[in-house]
Specification:
The chain has 9 helices and 7 strands, in the order βαβαβαβαβααβαααβ. It has 255 residues and is an alpha/beta fold. It has a single domain, classed as Rossmann fold. A 7-stranded parallel sheet has the order 3-2-1-4-5-6-7, with helices on both faces. Helix 1 links the parallel strand 1 and strand 2.
Length: 255
């Protein structure tokens, strides 16, 4: 499939984990993909991957408004006009799960990366989508933001709830301009970081019990999320907007 030929796509926090898998999938289907990430080390590692060749990586700290604006301006100066944005940056950033142990600083960084970075990036990219009368925005929500979490805290759950609610509002506001906005809400996806987090916070027995509570009896894979993002970003999904799409093997369901 070459669903993204002629498309220009921006993916945040995409030198590792889900973001890299998403960027690779969209590039494999013909998209011109720019991947933002703050880690020079992860960018160097990603650039060596065969599947990431053709993706343009840009080093930027998404928590830094000035850097972000400068980065998008310089991409625009290179002639890039994004019609697709994947707001993938986020995570619980290893802040404590117990609510009473979460400090203001823990709340600030988690809200900053999950919510504020997505707000800023969307604000920077939307004007071109509006000009072109076409756009696809896919935000990364989470099962945690939909149904609560066994191993992340209230800050992360609230941040993803905010991203998910913002998704509905952007869909309302920009639908008339040809722009869709949806959120993909994964359950635990076994990236190397999540493997570490699960090992740190759950015993082997607890992990096995968690898998047994998933109707599909397995944890999620990066490809499960990348395929869903690709569908929502594609032309085929033009009548789907304002939706929160669970990718969790049936662990959380809503009618
Ligand atoms: N992995 C999961 O199980 C899972 C489940 C549900 C939702 N999600 C969501 O999916 C998204 C991706 O998750 P992941 O597990 O792949 O993330 P991750 O923690 O593995 O991070 C991916 C990348 O983010 C980059 N990054 C971190 N802070 C940054 C910053 N300030 N500026 C620029 N880059 C930065 C890192 O360098 C890394 O390359 C997040 O929004 C997360 O909340 C993940």
């Amino acid at each position: 499939m070459n669903r993204f030929e002629g498309r220009t796509i921006l993916v945040s926090a995409a030198a590792d984990g889900l973001g890299l898998g998403i960027a690779e999938r969209l590039a494999a289907e013909g998209g011109r993909v720019v991947a933002l990430d703050k880690s020079a080390e992860s960018i160097a590692r990603a650039e060596e991957r065969l599947s990431a060749q053709g993706i343009r990586f840009e080093a930027v700290d998404l928590m830094d408004a000035g850097q972000l604006t400068e980065c998008i301006s310089s991409l625009e100066a290179d002639g890039l006009r994004f019609d697709t944005l994947v707001n993938n940056a986020g995570g619980s950033l290893h802040t404590p799960r117990p609510f009473l142990e979460e400090t203001d600083a823990h709340w600030d960084i988690v809200m900053g990366l999950n919510v504020t970075a997505a707000v800023r990036l969307t604000r920077l990219v939307l004007p071109h989508m509006i000009d072109g009368g076409f756009g696809r925005i896919v935000n990364l929500g989470s099962k945690a933001g939909r149904y609560g979490s066994l191993f992340t805290g209230a800050n992360y759950v609230a941040a993803k709830g905010a991203v998910q609610s913002m998704t509905l509002q952007l869909a309302q506001e920009f639908g008339p301009r040809g722009i869709t906005c949806n959120a993909v809400c994964p359950g635990a996806i076994l990236t190397p970081r999540v493997e570490g987090l699960l090992a740190e916070r759950m015993s082997a027995e607890e992990r096995e019990a968690a898998v047994q509570a998933i109707p599909m009896r397995r944890n999620g894979r990066v490809e499960d999320v990348a395929a869903t993002v690709a569908f929502l970003a594609s032309g085929e999904a033009g009548f789907i907007t304002g939706q929160l799409i669970d990718v969790n093997g049936g662990q959380g369901m809503a009618s």
